[in-house]
Amino acid sequence: MRVFITGTGVVGCHVARELLDRGDEVTLFDLAPRADYVARVAGPKVSVVRGDVRELPGVLEAVQVAAPEVVIHTAALVGGQAGALPYRGYLVNVVGTINVAEAVRLLGVRRLIHASTLGVIDRSVPQLAPIPETHHLGGNDRVYGTSKVACEQILRGYAATYRFELALLRFASVYGFGYPGTGSGPTVAIHDLVEAVLSGRPGVLGSGMPDVDELVYVRDLVGGIVSAVKTGKLPHHTYNLGGGRLTSGDEILAAVRRVIPGADVSRPAGDGTGGGRARIEQPMDITRARKELGYELRHDLDAGIRDLVAEIQGAPLAGIGGTR
């Protein structure tokens, strides 16, 4: 199968590697791919095309050359990156998504898989049980969240009009092997914490981590995404790909101490983006993904941290964290 992936961050590169290992042909598309990271995670067989999702002609050309059966759209500005300059955030996230949808429909791609987020969930609506895919959407007045709500609605309209297959995958906060700029706040915060400890420095779980969040290890997430690529007819458009539980900052520190004996880790009081509050009050309900995609959680927090340690120690990237 030929697959085209926008974005060379944590998710895009890990999905590319899994698909390549299965014998698929993968093309990565990114404005500024970091070559050493792509090679380290996705491997040497992946094809990389430089391009900007904001520019429709470049997106069309790249998709036309790759001739994919499935497009996975992960390229976006996330969290504070999107909110720092709202015009740029909406341009990349919303217009970029429209351009990808245009390429899909004009070039006859069979299926589009869109990387969405639990940030689309309207937090003003009471959360009394695990949050289903049918929960009210809102975006919570954040540029990133509202842009992703807009993308979901726009893509539904495109898919209904042009009859291509669509999967909207709502991710919990992803953690795994990355580097600054390749993911959300939790991705960078947990990676930097572990890397500091492995380098013999005190590890601080600082800015970017809500006080309570739902985490999913990248390898588990990849399993759900690949299932969305490979599954025949998808019964629904929307699937939650979460970690099945909420996790506090203290639990992360405790897991690092268990995995790395003697680890000096801490968190300054009140240093979470949650301002003393949870990002969400309930985890996402992943029943639908389990039933229809065969989604499985193979890594609890300790296992995820242990795997991350092995990844960081496996082949360091130069110039990250001041110690490589």
Explain this structure to me?
This protein has 324 residues and is an alpha/beta fold. Helices cover 42% and strands 16% of the residues. The protein contains eleven helices and 13 strands. The strands form four sheets. A seven-stranded parallel beta sheet has the order 3-2-1-4-5-6-11, sandwiched between helices. The protein has a two-stranded parallel sheet with strand order 7-10. It has a two-stranded parallel sheet with strand order 8-13. Helix 6 (143-162) links the parallel strand 5 (111-117) and strand 6 (165-171). Helix 3 crosses helix 5 and helix 5 packs parallel to helix 6 (143-162). The radius of gyration is 19 Å and the shape is globular. It starts with a strand and ends in a 10-residue tail after the last helix. The model is unreliable at 271-275 and 318-324 (pLDDT under 50).
Record the SSE blueprint.
Blueprint: E1 2-6, H1 10-21, E2 25-30, H2 35-41, E3 47-50, H3 56-66, E4 70-73, H4 79-84, H5 86-106, E5 111-117, H6 143-162, E6 165-171, E7 173-175, H7 185-198, E8 203-204, E9 212-213, E10 215-217, H8 218-230, E11 238-241, E12 247-248, H9 249-259, E13 265-266, H10 287-293, H11 301-314
Parallel strand pairs: 1-2, 1-4, 2-3, 4-5, 5-6, 6-11, 7-10, 8-13
Antiparallel strand pairs: 9-12
Helix pairs in contact: 1-8, 3-5, 5-6, 7-11, 9-11
